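Might you be able to consider the sequence and fold that I enclose below?
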Amino acid sequence: MDTRAPRPLLLTLGLGTFTVSIAATTVVPVLAVLQRQFGVTAGDTAWLVTAYFLVASTATPILGRLGDMRGKRPVLIGTLGLFLAGSLLCAVAPNLPLQIAGRALQGFGGAVFPLAYGVVRDEFPRERVPNAIGFLAATPAVGGALGLPLGGFIAEHAPVAIIFVVQSALAAGALVAAWLTLPAPGDRSPGRVDVVGAVVFTAGFGLPLLAVSRGGTWGWGSPVTLSCLVAGAALLAGWAWLELRTTDPLVNIHTFVRRPVLLTNLTTAVAGFGLFGTFFLLPQLAQIPVSSGYGLGLAASTAGLLFVPNAVVNAATSAMSGQVIGRWGARAPLLVGCAIAVVAFVLLSVAHGGAWQLVAWSCVLAVGVGLSYPAMPNLILDAVAKHETSEASGVNTIMRNAGAAAGSAVAGTILAARTPAGGLPSESGFSTAFLVAALSGVLAIAIGVFIPRKR
């Protein structure tokens, strides 16, 4: 174990995961501004979100595996370098295609999570691992919540490029801190890079994720959407067959079909579906004009501020969750957190007419997320060998991203189906979408109860 103090190391890792998390949502409030700036359609600017999630989801397990093989320090530093390059490109891009390319480079930052989990497991005393993982696992929700008001404020008071300047500054700070504090590579998992498996996985997972992200625009029954889904499913089946017959596979399929790992990944995907669908819904609901009879008529920056209490509560609850996990295991916080999230979704569905209600129910949701999200990577770490940490955590991260993309797409589709031509979404559309999120929480509980207890 490296002699450097765990606290500076944990702060470095937290800065990296926070930087990547906040970038996922900061761009959402400025999509309409970019649409006007570049003279493109809403479907065109949506690629700024789609490209980010596509690369984040497909590159994460590949870079996680490389971290196990080549050492987590060089791979994590390289990942932050790609994210920084993407942020700088977005800041100076004169057109939308270059900005989409920059967002794709930022997507490589998604691999920071499994690599950071691996560093914690390698370098921290065993009794401190649950708390440290809980701290890092809270950053997707905290960073995602803070990204919305930050993006909204900048959209109203400054050029959009400032968003990416801020992200570049955060990434540069994380890169320097990583260079100074990350320990030299320790134990490595020998083997070669499974290039063929990486290419097939990227296509097989990327096509369905693309269909889910763009299905609302293309049409869920369109030939393009259906072709992406069918081709992706076929490629993933072929990829699994290939990995089982490869000496040094990208992903050890035998590990991921084991009951604890498989059920935790399924629970993660379903839980992510509800959470990120809500990130999509709440700002829209707050900005609907008061004349609609149910909207709050808030500006983008003010609507985003509704998420600040959510982030504070989430951070506090995540710290508590880490302590609970360290003492009693991760399964109970996962189930309790999902149950609390279901209550929050139901409350949002039936009572959302005032700002205080949106703040209160989103804080209830933050308690549920703060309990459950740190439990997921801890369950993975409990179930896999040390040399598989980054690889297994990478797959768990893409399951969360896949659920997030699907949740946002389904929420958008529900609203679109309840929106008259040239009008605003109906209130029933929001209520239905929140109920669907509640059902996803119930399903997460139904799967999670079968995760074996840690002995």
The chain has a mean pLDDT of 85. The chain has two domains: 6-194+248-448, 195-247. The CA atoms of residues 259 and 410 lie 28 Å apart. The chain is about 80% helix and 0% strand.
